Amino acid sequence: MTTPAARLRAPSLDSQAVRRWGLPAAAIVLIVLYPLLIENIGFLDSLFVGRLGIDMDTAFQMAVYVMLALGLNIVVGYAGLLDLGYVAFFALGAYTLGWFGSGLFSGQNIHFLDVGNTAIPGIHLSFWVVVPLAGLVCAIAGIIIGWPTLRLRGDYLAIVTLGFGEIIPDVFRNGDDINGHNLTNGVRGITQLDRPGFGESINNATGGFLPDRYSSLPDELKPWFYTILLMCLITIFINLRLRDSRLGRAWIAVREDEIAASAMGVPLMRTKLWAYAIGGVFGGLAGAIYGSFINGIFPTSFSFQISVIVLVMVIVGGMGNIWGVIVGASLISWLNFIGLQKIGNLLNDGIPGSAHDVDITKYKYGLFGILLILMMLFRPEGIIPSARRKAEFSEGEGEAVLYDTAH
Amino acid sequence: MATADTTAQRLPSRRLPPVSQLVLWFFGAVLVVATFGWLIKEFIESPSRFIEVTLIGVTNGSIYALVALGYTLVYGIIELINFAHGDNFMIGSFETHSIVTEGAFQLPLYPTTFVLGIPLGTTAVAADSGLHRAYAIAMALFFSMLLCMTINVTIERIGYKPLRNQPRLAPLITAIGFSFLLQNIALIWKNASPQPVPDIFPHGNVISTHGVSYEWGAFIVVLITIPLLLVLSWLVRSTKAGKAMRATAQDQDASAMMGINVDRTISFTFALGGALAGAAGAIYVLAVGNTKFDLGFRLGLFAFTAAVLGGIGNLTGAVVGGLLLGLIAAYNDADLLFNIGARWTNTVIFSILILILVFKPSGLLGEQTPEGQ
Q1: Who among B261, B347, B357 is closest to A156 (CB)?
Q2: Which architecture, in CATH terms, is B46-359?
Q3: Which residue in B163, B188, B262 is closest to A403 by CB distance?
Q4: DSSP-H helix ranges across B211-366
């Protein structure tokens, strides 16, 4: 006799299993080996991947956006709170690095386990300390922002988050003269940021495997990529664990029906605050490493557009579905950084005739806008839907429209 | 006896709001009193400058009010923040740019292939006769209103109508999509740089006494706005369509049962909102002198703040909110508000948005929405 448990233990290796585990496994192997394969471009070309034109720099930025999208997925996908100011956390994370890992406060001379900056004044904490610190700062900011605002109904909350998304970069822009103190260096931004690294002794002990200080040379971006990859994997793991946790189920309950959830004893405020704070943490972590990689933090780089692009990623991929969000984020960030340009070149070369020089990148935001509209109209559950979310969106469809007198 | 006891207990708690509410009122009152106190202080220090800034505030405020009305009309009827409204306003200003500088009605995306030449020529410069300039202004107003009206109705048909039964955030997300789309259309239509228009508003001062001067160019903004508001108010209060609008805003199902064509009424509302946005765009670009493709986002948010400040869904509220916000922005820009400094104006306005939404979501004059009633 086979008990259900026994059946669970011995899954049959049919196409379902290959699709469920084989594809993600192949993707992970490809991603992990990507920096090594990129030197052998012929092999990648034969896999088609090479033609996508993803160099290490793009790959890193794509991974940053995957992390952002996963963070926003907690807020929008799990808890169903539309956040239009997610860029605020990204900015706050980057500025945390600016405060604790650069020469901004040149009056100070604080060093803690930092690599290669001992001669430069300013506050220099080890990068591995600053990153969690950025997460912490964003969690606290999330609670401060969320505490008064999360009581609001959905659309008002969206606008309030948008307001914060505008205020926070504004504060950074004007922060070079707050009562005479220079906190953010204003529009000039913070440059010369600390880079991650393991110090000389670890570098020597591992034979250069863990570098002394990450290099920004285009050929030496591998450590950066593996660092962000590791951070992404941690993010995915936490996302998965959270989804199946008591808190995750509470988020989904709140998303589906706030009143019912509250009646069942789910503490609304606390549940939403956790979503907001944890979502913020990932934004902050991504912001810190992104700032260090770009080596410059400017208030103008944290615009509303970024909030919406991350939202597009979550919606295209499928709100609430981790794999969907990862696919959506990879796709959209690829289009954003290099894909549209590639497609444009392909179109210009492919169409016979003279003078084809359509600059398709010019239409980028319009295309993202159309994508948002089309997704919401025809496939609101995303390309890889979570079963639950799909059911939610088709809920209203069966109801007869009472007032449609035209038909 | 038991019933008497319960009423005796319940009544005081009804009369006295909870402590948190009282604390809130206290801080709100302190804030308002401090603001007024500060403004009075500024007024006493230099009255002429204060009055000038106030007049600027009223001028800007009337543009905010026109845009805010579009938000409030739409929110009042289908509870949707029409995010694309600010960008629609921007498209209106672009159309005015086309009409005044090129003398033709252009379709966005087809600026060269579809051009409707306007008779008598509208390309206007400051040196033209007053009559010609007035004609150009009228044409700019008319065609901008027409275009924005069409765009708004089209957006509603394509993007919002199919989503009426969906979760409330779905149409909001489409609205963001339309906002991006309109910005991109404008970017392709003209280009990313600010688009200048000739200064064709009349020159000279309306008032010029005791060091206070108010230019015709600014006053005409108010002069165009007031009749528009009167027409809108007449439309909503005294016409059958307006009655249908008010009924639909209260209860869609019940109005449908009373024989009101709800779809058409909603389209009509969007058309009204679009026309106001077009008019505001035309007035804005003619008064300010240039426009830019990303103008609508910020100004749209300001106008939405105005709508919320006055009480969303409330037409009088939108006008009051718009004027108030225009005044606050003008005082802050002129550094007359607690010496915060002009560069914080955005932050001040967005803080007002957040504070109002958090502490008094019904606004100053009370919201009038299907849910809020």
Answers
A1: B357
A2: Orthogonal Bundle (1.10)
A3: B262
A4: 216-238, 240-250, 252-257, 262-288, 295-310, 315-333, 345-359
Mean predicted lDDT score pLDDT of chain A: 81
Instruction: Give the separation between CA A370 and CA B184, rounded to whole angstroms.
Output: 11
A402–B173 C-beta distance less than 8 A: no
Helix (H) or strand (E) holding A42: helix A41-46
Predicted confidence at residue A10, as pLDDT, reads 47
Does position B8 have pLDDT exceeding 70, yes or no?
no
Indicate the DSSP class of residue B183: H
Residue of A159, A160, A300, A392 to mutate, interface with B, max B Cβ within 10 Å: A159
pLDDT of B373: 44
A chain contacts of residue B170, beta-carbon cutoff 8 Å: 376, 380, 393
* Mean pLDDT calculated for residue range A253-276: 89
Question: Interior CA angle at A166 toward A162 and A172, to 5°?
Answer: 145
CA B6, CA B1: separation in Å to the nearest integer? 9
Smallest CA–CA distance from A372 into chain B, residue = B177
**Rounded Cα–Cα distance for residues B130 and B127 (Å):** 9
3-state secondary structure of A297: strand
HSE-CB at B65 with a 13 A cutoff on CA atoms is: 29
| pLDDT tens for each residue of A9-44 | 444 556 666 767 777 787 788 788 777 777 766 666
Length reported for chain B: 373
What lies within 8 Å, CB to CB, of B205 at 6+ separation is B213, B214, B215, B216
ipTM of the complex: 0.83
**How many angstroms away from the CA of B272 is the closest CA of chain A?**
21
Please report which confidence band the pLDDT of residue B122 belongs to, taking 50, 70 and 90 as the band edges: low
Q: A-B interface: how many C-beta pairs under 8 angstroms?
A: 148
Minimal C-alpha gap between A251 and chain B (Å): 17
Q: How many CA atoms lie within 13 A of A13 on its CB side?
A: 1
- At residue A160, what is the residue type? V
**Whole-angstrom distance, CA of residue B120 vs CA of residue B189:** 24
Tell me how far apart the alpha carbons of residues A342 and B125 are, in angstroms, rounded to a whole number: 45
More confident position, B44 or B293: B293
Contact B346 A403 (CB under 8 A): no
Highest mean pLDDT among A314-328, A382-396, B102-116, B207-221: A314-328
Tell me which of B350, B356, B362, B367 to substitute to probe the interface with A (most A C-beta atoms closer than 10 Å): B350
- For residues B184 and B294, the answer to whether their CB atoms sit within 8 Å is no
Check A403 against B158: CB less than 8 A apart. no
The Cα-based distances of B361 to A205, B6, B353, B367 in angstroms read 61, 32, 10, 8
Distance from CA of B71 to the nearest CA of A (A): 13
Task: Indicate if the pLDDT at residue A350 is higher than 90.
Answer: no
